[in-house]
Each structure stands twice: as C-alpha cells, then as structure tokens.
Design goal:
It is a single chain. With 105 residues, this protein is α+β, with helices and mostly antiparallel strands. It has one domain. 26% of the residues lie in helices and 25% in strands. The protein contains three helices and five strands, in the order βββββααα. Strand 2 and strand 3 form a beta hairpin. It is globular, with a radius of gyration of 13 Å. The two termini are 22 Å apart.
C-alpha cells in the first residue's frame, strides 16, 4: 500500500525514550500534545502515540534515517552493533513508496 499525504509539515519523526533515538516513522496525526507515528506502510491504519517532546521532526525519510544513525547509541535492541546500511535497508523495506521514484531515475 502506498503512503497517502498527511498534509503535515515535517511528516517524518525520530522518536526517543530519552537516551537516544529508539526508532523512526511517518507522523500521521499531530494535535500538538500527541503525535501518531506509523512505523511502516503495512502498519496502516495503526500507529503509536508519542509525546512531541520525544520526537525530532524531519522533512524527509532520508533525513530522519540519517539522524537516527548519527545519534543512536551504536547498538540495536539485541545489543548487536548498529549497521548503518541495515538501517537504511530497513527504511526501504518499511516505506518502499518513498524510494519508488528514486529507483526510476
């Protein structure tokens, strides 16, 4: 399923529990006190709820992913070293519509 436009400025977010980035996704709802973030296109219509104070916003998925990579503590949830190429691949698998036009160029 392709992503629909949400009409939200800076629609990509990197969320955190406070010690560094925990993940990234598409902001699908913003009511100023609560952000709803979708973690993949397949997750539609579901999303998780985040306090805006714990979300850094970006204009593009690529910017969000690079911020996640640069600011992550260096290990994934299983204590394996974080591999930047695996994170970029994860973004491509979770949000393939963001890369469709780029693959045609």
């Amino acid at each position: 399923m392709s992503e629909e436009s949400t009409g939200i400025e800076m629609p990509w977010g990197v969320y955190s529990f406070g010690l560094g980035p925990s993940g990234f996704g598409k902001i699908v709802s913003d009511n100023k006190t609560n952000l709803r973030i979708r973690h993949s296109e397949e997750q539609y219509p579901h999303s998780s709820s985040w306090d805006p104070n714990y979300v850094k916003r970006f204009a593009t998925l690529e910017e969000a992913v690079e911020h996640y990579i640069e600011n992550h503590q260096g290990f994934d949830i299983r204590c394996n070293p974080l591999n930047p190429n695996e994170v970029r691949g994860l973004a491509r698998r979770r949000f393939p519509s963001q890369y469709e036009n780029k693959n045609k160029d």
